[in-house]
Each structure stands twice: as C-alpha cells, then as structure tokens.
Write a structure and sequence with these properties.
alpha/beta; Alpha-Beta Plaits; Rossmann fold; 2 domains; 7-stranded mixed β-sheet; 8 helices; 14 strands; elongated
Length: 262
C-alpha cells in the first residue's frame, strides 16, 4: 500500500478527489492549508502503479510514499496486561494464561467494542467498592454494563442474581449474563434490587438517579462512578434528592466513586 500527497486550491478539491477515486484510491483524507489551499492524501493498494499516478497528478505535487502496515489489534492486546485490583480480583485478558495469584478470583476480560477492561480508574473503584458492599445472595443490577466486568465481579463474589443492562446491544452480548437486556433501570420493578452498579457518565447518573434509587430495597446501596472529582457534588446531590444517603466516596487519581444507600 502507498499514498499520494497532493496540494490544491479549494476550488479544485472536489474535481481532484473525484479523479483520485476514479484512479483507484481506497481512501482520501483532507486538511486545510493557510489561505485557500487544501492538502489531500489518497491511499492506494499495491496493485496500482505508483509512478504512473505520480506523473498523472504531478501538477499538484503528487509524491508517492509507502504506508506502513500495522497490526493494531496486536498492539492493543500488548498494552492490556493482567492486573490485581482491590483485595480479591485478578483481571486477565482472555488471550493470557498467567496463573491466578493465591487468594484472588479471576475475571477474564475481553472488551471487544465495549467499555470495561479494568484498566480505567473508575472501573477499579467500582470493583473495590463491590468487595466492600456485596453480600452473598444479593440481587445486583449493573446499569450500563459495558463489557460486563462488574457483573462478573458480583457473580464471582457470590451474588444470588445479577441483572445486566445497557443501551448498546453489542455490550449486552459481551456481558454474557443470563439476565441481561437492552435498556436501562426503568425496566426494573421497584424495591427489588440490593445493589445497583453504574459506571457511566455523570450526566447519565444524574438523569437516571430517580430510577437507580427507585429499584433499591430498603437498606440497599448504589455504587456509581465514571466521573471526576469536580463532578462528584452534582452526582451526590442528584442521589440525595432521590432519597439516598451518600455513605462514602472513593477516589483514585482524579476519578471518583460514590456509595449511597437507602
């Protein structure tokens, strides 16, 4: 694969792009230059004649350059290492066979297209809070389940039933929980959940706060994260306006998690 760099006037841009497509380009990027100029980069596969294309587009300064092939999947995987989180968890990518340290439970992560590898501070905060709050046989609701890592953690620590939901169908499939659905907490009947988990955006937590608290049984708790320290007050206020009481705040770097109970 190679690419051609070209520079043209804005009024030539559309015609030149059309000619590049007709010449077999597989993709074109554009960027503006100072004044009325435009820079184009057109990509071609190895079957095209680089020298001939350079001659054809010579008036625009075309010069062929090789495009380095790169295995982005392999690079992403190489950056995702097994890790210990909290006192109980060992998070390992599904393609790693590192032994689980003694006294820890293994969570196999395969993030795919969803959030939740365990590397992010907000996920780690939620896992640490789950260790503190979960009791055997609890019914747990994971709102915005992402990759399902929090659901898996609750199940491994003895939850009686775990319900996972997300508005993204791909995330629901990745969560791999028997009780999972596309949607959110408003689909759950009131006062039937012992522990709510929500590692989502602060805006989503504020919006969903009435539903997150509505589903909790008396004595139940919500663990919410996905926001920074400067956003914690707004999240706490939203939960308290719905009748919850903030019991504790956990921090890691600039990220925050709140545990609230009813």
């Amino acid at each position: 694969m190679f690419s051609l760099y070209l520079e043209c006037r804005q009024q030539e841009r559309e015609r030149l792009i059309a000619e590049l497509w007709e010449s077999g380009s597989t993709g074109i990027t554009e960027s503006d230059l100072p004044g009325e100029g435009c820079r184009l980069r057109a990509f071609f596969d190895g079957n095209c004649d680089a020298a001939a294309l350079a001659r054809a587009f010579a008036p625009w300064g075309a010069r062929p350059e090789p495009v380095e092939t790169h295995d982005w999947i392999a690079e992403a995987r190489s950056k995702l290492e097994p890790m210990c989180v909290g006192a109980r968890f060992f998070l390992a990518p599904e393609w790693r066979d590192d032994p689980t340290p003694a006294g820890r439970v293994r969570i196999v992560v395969n993030p795919g297209m969803a959030f939740g590898t365990g590397a992010h501070e907000s996920t780690q905060l939620c896992l640490e809070a789950i260790e503190q709050m979960l009791r055997p046989a609890m019914t747990v609701l994971d709102v915005g389940a992402g990759s399902g890592i929090l659901s898996a953690a609750a199940q491994l620590l003895g939850a009686g039933r775990v319900i996972a939901c997300d508005i993204d169908r791909v995330a629901v499939e990745l969560a791999r929980q028997p009780l999972s659905f596309v949607g959110t907490a408003d689909a759950i009947r009131g006062r039937c959940i012992d522990l709510v988990l929500a590692n989502i955006s602060p805006e989503a937590i504020v919006m969903l706060a009435p539903q997150l608290i509505r589903v909790l049984r008396a004595g139940g708790a919500a663990i919410v994260s996905g926001f920074e320290l400067g956003e914690a007050d707004a999240v706490q206020t939203a939960l308290e306006q719905c009748g919850a009481l903030a019991k504790s705040t956990l921090t890691k770097g600039n990220w925050c998690a709140i545990v609230a109970s009813v």
